[in-house]
Specification:
alpha+beta; 4-stranded mixed β-sheet
Length: about 160
């Protein structure tokens, strides 16, 4: 089987982390990774630019984290309400995803964040109240459980899911 060397532009489950160089099946690279822009071919030019790209991403993350720290007070004590179709027992027909919460934050509070900043404690599949942690990418991947104190560089919002 022919293989192709690629540089991952984002983390791919069961394959590798962002910016790793991997040898994958040629068809997997050609039909999935490259068209979806999850990877680029590991050519000499791309390998040479890898360190520059990593530095730029690290710098961008630092800038985002700094801006978030300045604006953190705007996120505290926010309640976001999402209305979703549900059955009589309160089970949702469709789970609430990070993009749904980002849209509700934008619509209700005029706050724009990246969906990757949201740390959901569990998959939201029922009507109810949930505590959602907001942390800039790279700052904290740890999910805060109920009753735990959130780290200082994060904000916690309340998500209320109601039946439509």
């Amino acid at each position: 089987m022919a293989t192709t060397k690629v540089i991952l532009l984002e983390s791919v489950p069961k394959l590798g982390a962002r910016f790793e160089t991997k040898a994958v099946a040629s068809g997997y690279a050609r039909n999935f990774l490259l068209p979806q822009k999850k990877a680029v071919l590991a050519t000499e030019a791309n390998l040479a630019g890898l360190n520059d790209r990593q530095a730029r991403v690290k710098q961008d993350l630092a800038v985002q984290a700094e801006l978030f720290k300045k604006e953190i007070e705007r996120f505290r004590d926010i309640v976001v309400t999402i209305s979703m179709p549900a059955n009589e027992e309160g089970g949702l027909y469709q789970a609430v995803h990070e993009n749904d919460i980002v849209e509700a934050l934008s619509r209700e509070h005029k706050l724009v964040i990246d969906p990757s900043w949201l740390k959901l404690p569990t998959v939201v599949k029922k009507v109810g109240d949930y505590d959602i942690l907001i942390a800039p990418a790279g700052s904290s991947d740890r999910v805060i459980r109920a009753g735990e104190e959130a780290p200082a560089e994060t904000a916690q919002i309340k998500l209320t899911v109601v039946a439509k």
